[in-house]
Specification:
Chain lengths: 445, 687
């Protein structure tokens, strides 16, 4: 049985790595990957040779963490730990290609194989281990910078560029020795006025989440929020409801959400990890919401308790949906204005004629939105003025003003609803745009 | 999975021993061989990329003939050989065999490379080149000073207390050496890098000195000045083993710290600091690179550098010495480099050795009686790699018939009338030496050549047959096709070394017979005086240089130009990178993923002065040619220096040799193509 104490781990010596890339190429060859891809990446820091900083490299694949977030959060139970080597392995036959493991991994280890539609990553070279060999990257490293040894409880807190996360990664990094921090140099002192000419050389990271790749999720989350809010208003306040439109909306939402999967036919597997993964729970709860809600809507379910139960599952689904993002390593959750739970509540109060509550929610969202805008600017996020104007003027001011003018006017109601939809969509778009999962690498680039 | 031993035959310090696994007749993976103590750490990305190189869809697998429209069509070997025979017989009859230039580069090592010249001699002669692109000035300087080109075993570096990487970026060009440097550092050694740029190797250094390119000789003399002034020289070593110290001492008196600081553009403090370390820390090793000796003054530069070790007694001891070239494994050569590539004192009337490799373009055009009418290129890519590409192209295009043997469609192959597919290192066995460690190794045949590929030896054999030569004519000169014949040919060559057998070599590398782990430990020097010669009458006689290693400004030095004519103020550095061996490898996807396109590095000061920002398209130019590339700023460069790495093909974005000059080094018939200045300007369109 797998023994934590005997668990193998990578050892990486910053003093020895010259950034030669042999480890990454060895990975490609040993695992017979496409020639342009590797499960291992060498990150170079200070490529532009800023005079006061050392240049160094960090070679990273999977660190087979003892508290591996990928293993914990995989909705399809496709990731497991090898009982002998302790390696964290993705089962290609079970993976649904949802890429969630790559979102939760602080080290960018799982890679999406477009051809196969599944996630893949470093396996410690299982076949080589079985033959008593070291992983290919370790065996190839010409300077012995990358080695294979026993796991030690070491979180490498002092290593610049290395994401320090409490996941117990199986890697220990040897820091730069004094002489390797910076040579005594005899060159012209660097004039800070030249900084614009020393433009950023940091490598272009392929963003893990982009609007274009995840628009299906954006759509699904908003559909979920609106349908839960709408149904709740119907159950609680008997607001206007059209079960055909509602059913189409819910099932379309679920259908759309499977579009981003690499293996769409395996979508059902996403439910399997309901015990551990918010992603599974989100889908489970949404299913438990939709089915009784539709039955209730068509009158098949007569008992009001059934409707109430669906409402509870609906909001639980929205809560789970927010939690999916809360666990991402580089994302400080806080109270983002685009949380779908709030959107659901807003729609509920809007349609349920809880006008005052809706106004309070809208204003609260506005305040949270502005706050995160300011914090974002401080850490260098884009301003996106057009989206901000849409969000604030159309999404908040317009509905609030119309409420005060005459919230009961039918035309106004339509306008209010449109404003809210535009505002929420805009907010959610910005939420995805801000989900940048590689800032810790960039910082030293 | 079956595993075989082989060795990498590239022009590279490391010359790695490899274990190659083969599955279903296909190469699968390459790993280091632990018995090569110099390279047991691992295989570099180029070595690994052989897996792609052998099976690349871009590989040339058939003879290709240029059609009237200029494109290439596949032809069979029979037609290809007939075409060659028709041309060489015609030229021999019309102009004589010396109208054919047989040109070989450093693309692959091996004893079988000799077969080509055997064929041309059998044919009746040819013209060929003298000199070498790579390292002659340093080889000759070392030969003149120490008598032989050899140095301590690679792993001995870990015994050094002071390591100077002088113009050598081992982290990229000799990565395995960094292992020994790291061990020395862990034992408390000091590491100094002297290079105009902040290299990957410099990241390990205590001190980085960035002199103006071409002034290393002055720097060495200045260091000697401080050492002598501070009475640091090892007087007892000098009196017993050094010739010409008194004259040398007088010479360096002129090179005061102030003067040298002005010549080199290095602070006096840095010079004094390094001199102090050289005087106090022992043993010291200087690792001299090749790039710095491609200037018109560089033979003398290298002599001045060796002098620093001579006067501090750092020769013939563990951890000490001059690491430039280790020819201890060249046991099969009757005459070693650099003498081997000098023109013969008495021409034999058969092979005309009259074209300088450094001046290939102009010299090809200058040949007369007979003029050149045909070229046969093998193991080389002279269009990309020899100085003054525009001149080389002009010379190529004046010929009647061009044959190029290569694996890929290089810039030179594109100029050919007939391209012959070349074997890869896994497709014919051969024996190779090295120039950093002293192992003899077998580059073993593991797979059959793909497609219609034939090893060069077989091409020559078939040509000889077609020309009517008999088995007896070819005997010992051109082995017949087939593995058995190749092995017995190799067997002949190793007969006189009982420790070297093919079976033994199939297991792993073997140290060259008589190799010395500590070179010159006997303090015997094969120089006229039997001592280390700081004063060399031979140097003066052979090369018309000062018998002392005095400093002269290089041909394109900024100190030579007059202010108003200084059209090209920037020194153009063209170093090698980890991604290529000269012009090989970058066509592969495994390499391209790290090295996509050529770019020019500029210091932000020089970029700002020209209004250039990172990523801007620029034009790099001088009177010889131009390159158009994107700019990238690098604050680690010495201001006034710009850099494009060597080896890019024209078809990939441009060779640096469009800008280099066809000039020889002051000694050894080397190419002084790093002696090169340019200007850079921003272009509006990257057209």
């Amino acid at each position: 049985m797998y023994n934590e104490l005997k668990k193998p781990a990578f050892q990486f010596d910053l003093n020895r790595c010259t950034g030669c890339q042999a480890c990454a190429v060895a990975c490609t060859l040993e695992n017979e990957l496409d020639l342009l891809h590797s499960w291992r990446t060498v990150y170079t820091f200070n490529e532009a040779h800023e005079p006061n900083l050392p240049q160094f490299h960090l070679s990273m694949a999977c660190n087979h963490c003892l508290d591996a977030p990928c293993l914990k959060y995989c909705p399809a139970l496709a990731i497991s730990r090898d009982s002998v080597s302790g390696a964290v392995l993705i089962d290609g036959g079970k993976c649904i290609g949802c890429k969630y493991c790559s979102w939760v991994c602080p080290y960018d280890a799982p890679k999406f194989n477009r051809t196969a539609g599944i996630m893949e990553k470093c396996t410690f070279c299982q076949p080589r281990l079985a033959e008593g060999l070291k992983p290919a990257c370790v065996g190839i490293c010409p300077t012995d910078a990358l080695q294979f040894g026993a796991y030690t409880e070491n979180r490498n807190p002092e290593i610049p560029g290395f994401p320090d996360r409490p996941v117990r990664p199986a890697i220990s990094i040897i820091a730069l020795r004094g002489n390797n921090r910076l040579p005594q140099m005899d060159c012209t002192p660097f004039d800070p006025q030249l900084t614009p000419f020393l433009s950023n050389h940091s490598r272009k990271f392929e963003p893990k989440i982009t609007l274009s790749s995840e628009w299906t999720l954006l759509l699904f989350s908003l559909i979920a929020a609106f349908s839960v809010g709408w149904f709740a208003a119907f159950v609680v306040f008997s607001s206007a409801f059209d079960v055909r439109v509602f059913a189409v909306l819910c099932f379309a939402g679920m259908g759309i959400s499977t579009l981003h999967l690499g293996k769409k036919l395996r979508a059902w597997r996403a439910l399997l990890s309901w015990k551990h993964s918010w992603l599974s729970r989100e889908i489970l709860f949404f299913g438990l919401f939709t089915i009784p809600a539709v039955l209730y809507g068509i009158g098949f379910l007569q008992n009001t308790a059934g409707g109430w139960l669906a409402v509870v599952f609906g909001f639980a689904a929205l809560f789970a949906m927010d939690r999916v993002y809360d666990v991402l390593p580089q994302y400080a959750p806080g109270w983002h204005s685009a949380r779908v739970l709030f959107t659901g509540l807003l729609v509920f109060s809007l349609l349920g004629a809880l006008r005052e509550f809706a106004v309070v929610l809208l204003l609260a969202k506005g305040i949270v939105y502005l706050r995160q805008k300011f914090t974002g600017l401080k850490i260098g996020q884009a301003l996106r003025p057009a989206l901000s104007v849409l969000r604030i003027l159309i999404g908040i001011f317009l509905p609030v003003i119309l409420f005060f003018l005459n919230g009961n006017n039918y035309d106004y109601k339509i306008l209010i609803l449109c404003g809210v939809v535009i505002g929420e969509v805009t907010d959610r778009i910005e939420f995805y745009l801000q989900l940048d999962l590689s800032p810790e690498w960039k910082k030293y680039g | 999975m079956p595993e075989f031993v082989t060795a990498c035959p590239r022009n590279c310090y490391s010359t790695c021993s490899m274990r190659v696994s083969v599955r279903d007749g296909r190469l699968r993976m390459i790993e280091p061989h632990e018995e090569n103590k110099a390279t047991s750490g691992g295989i570099c990305l180029k070595g690994l990329s052989y897996i792609e190189r052998v099976y690349s869809p871009d590989r040339i697998l058939n003879p290709l003939h240029r059609t009237a429209s200029g494109s290439f069509e596949k032809i069979d070997w029979e037609d290809a050989l007939n075409l060659i025979c028709k041309n060489i017989i015609r030229l021999k009859n019309e102009y004589g065999p010396q109208s054919i230039l047989y040109y070989t580069g450093s693309g692959t090592k091996g004893l079988l490379n000799a077969v080509g010249m055997n064929f041309w001699r059998l044919f009746g002669g040819c013209t060929t080149t003298y000199g070498d692109l790579c390292w002659p000035a340093g080889l000759e300087a070392t030969r003149l000073t120490l008598g032989e080109n050899k140095h301590n075993a690679p792993w001995d570096l870990e015994n050094a207390r002071l390591i100077i990487f002088w113009g050598k970026n081992a982290a990229e060009t000799n990565i395995h050496q960094m292992v020994f440097a790291d061990r020395a550092l862990q034992n408390g050694a000091k590491l100094v890098v002297i290079d105009p740029r902040r290299t990957q190797t410099a990241e390990r250094a205590h001190l980085l000195i960035q002199p103006r390119p071409g002034t290393d000789g002055a720097l060495a003399l200045g260091l000697a000045n401080v050492l002598i002034h501070d009475e640091k020289p090892d007087i007892s070593f000098i009196s017993r083993h050094v010739h010409g110290f008194t004259a040398f001492k007088k010479l360096v008196g002129k090179y005061t710290v102030q003067k040298v600081s002005e010549i080199c553009g290095v602070s006096p403090d840095a010079i004094i600091q390094l001199a102090e370390w050289l005087g106090e820390i022992k043993p010291s090793t200087i690792n001299a690179g090749f790039g710095m000796q491609r200037f018109t003054n560089s033979g003398q530069t290298m002599r001045a550098m060796i002098a620093l070790l001579a006067i501090t007694g750092n020769i013939g001891k563990p951890g000490a010495g001059w690491m430039f070239a280790n020819l201890q494994s060249a046991v099969f050569d009757v005459v070693k480099d650099p003498i081997a590539f000098y023109p013969p004192q008495q021409p034999d009337g058969v092979v005309r050795v009259s074209v300088s490799t450094a001046k290939l373009g102009p010299d090809m055009r200058a040949q007369s009686e007979p003029p050149l009418k045909m070229i046969w290129v093998e193991r080389g890519n002279p269009v990309t790699q020899n100085p003054e590409t525009n001149m080389v192209l002009k010379a190529f295009r004046q010929l009647d018939f061009r044959v190029v043997v290569d694996q890929f469609m290089t810039d030179t192959a594109r100029e050919a009338d007939l391209i012959l597919p070349a074997k890869s290192m896994f497709e014919q066995s051969d024996i190779i030496g090295a120039y950093w460690h002293s192992y003899i190794q077998l580059k073993q045949k593991l797979i059959d050549p793909p497609g219609e590929v034939k090893p060069e030896t077989e091409i020559y054999y078939l040509l000889a047959k077609k020309l009517g030569f008999s088995e007896a004519d070819c005997k010992d000169k051109i082995p017949a096709p087939g593995d058995a014949s190749i092995e017995s040919w190799l067997q002949e060559r190793i007969l006189r070394f009982p420790d070297i057998t093919l079976d033994r070599l199939r297991e792993g590398p073997v140290e060259a017979p008589g190799h010395e782990a500590v070179a010159f430990a006997d303090l015997k020097f094969q120089t006229p005086s039997g001592k280390i010669e700081l004063y060399s009458e031979q140097a003066a006689r052979l090369w018309s240089v000062d018998p002392l290693p005095d400093y002269r400004e290089s041909a394109e030095s900024g100190k030579r130009a007059t202010g108003k004519n200084d059209k090209y103020p920037l020194y153009f550095l063209t170093p090698n990178t980890k991604n290529r061996i000269h012009s090989q490898f970058n066509n592969l996807q495994l390499i391209r993923r790290y090295s996509e396109k050529p770019e020019i590095l500029l210091h932000p000061v020089d970029a700002a002065a020209r209004g250039i920002s990172n990523g801007n398209p620029v034009r790099v130019f001088n009177d010889r040619g131009e390159l158009r590339l994107p700019a990238k700023t690098d604050a680690g460069l010495r201001p006034g220096c710009v850099l494009v790495t060597n080896g890019w093909w024209i078809s990939e974005g441009g060779t640096v040799n469009f800008l280099s000059a066809a000039r020889e080094t002051d000694m050894g018939y080397g190419a002084a193509f790093h002696d090169n200045r340019v200007e850079v300007e921003k272009t509006i369109n990257d057209k």
